[in-house]
Amino acid sequence: MIADDSAIVARRMGVRRGGRWLLRPADFDVTGGVVGVAGPPGTGKSTLLATFATLRRPHVGALGILGHDIGNAHSVRAVRARIGYLPDRFSWAQGFTVAEFIAYSAYYKRVPAGTAAAMLERLELGEVAATELALLPPDMRLRAGLAATCVHEPDLVLLDEPLTGLAEPEANALITLIGALAPTVVVTARAIEELTGWCDRLFALGRGRLIEAAAAPPPVASPLATGPVPSVPGPVTPPARAGADGTERSARLAVGTGACV
Ligand SMILES: Nc1ncnc2c1ncn2[C@@H]1O[C@H](COP(=O)(O)OP(=O)(O)OP(=O)(O)O)[C@@H](O)[C@H]1O
């Protein structure tokens, strides 16, 4: 039984698929902020995210999401209403216009139509509201996906490789927006460099292990610098929207941390 209000609490949780461990039994906690999980294709990012979304059960151990033990069927129903999950390469409703897609999402999430309209504006989709999803460029299609995912204002948002395939300017424009979607956002990417500089915490997934890496590269020391040495960034302080090093979330392609998996 997990009695902890953290967004994600794993206790000896292990995830298997295709006859192998994607995550060997491990303990970890996510209390809030933007959390990045990086790993090459096939390491298990999508499966882990689907587990956090309660669509899959851990093979062993316990998983708490937003204070609910997801080993309990009643808890799963309650917690799903507070999660926003956008799978990798989502391809729903290609024939819907942006406005229809968000309105439909609002309808099945029992959210008033006015909230859907507000979300459309918040994601800066007003100009393409009448355009079909299939005709949108990738970044605008992602914005529509984010709007539909978050129309019910979830407490935990799970985004599977949202920035994969986007050009750097479009990706950078979305980073601040992604960080503001919910008190806790988990985002995956193939390379840790894509997440460095704007996520509050970073993990590398590979060979069945989830290893935490430094969330920001250490500041370059100036030979003329005086005063105390800056400390290593501490744990996430939700719902801070600045990066863990206090900078804006604009340095998506900052120098990597060298974390190995
Ligand atoms: N339908 C399936 N049946 C059996 N095993 C699967 C299936 N889908 C995935 N797997 C196994 O799970 C592993 C992890 O897949 P997953 O999609 O979670 O990884 P990923 O890191 O998200 O990769 P990608 O970036 O390609 O989506 C795969 O390497 C494969 O061994």
From TrEMBL:
GO molecular function: ATP binding; ATP hydrolysis activity
InterPro entries: AAA+_ATPase, ABC_transporter-like_ATP-bd, P-loop_NTPase
Family: Belongs to the ABC transporter superfamily.
Recorded coiled-coil stretches: none
Domain spans labelled ABC transporter: 8-232
Gene3D superfamilies per UniProt: P-loop containing nucleotide triphosphate hydrolases (3.40.50.300)
The keyword Cell membrane appears for this protein: no
Protein name (database record): ABC transporter
Species: Thermomonospora echinospora
Keywords: ATP-binding, Nucleotide-binding, Transport
Cited Pfam families: ABC_tran (PF00005)
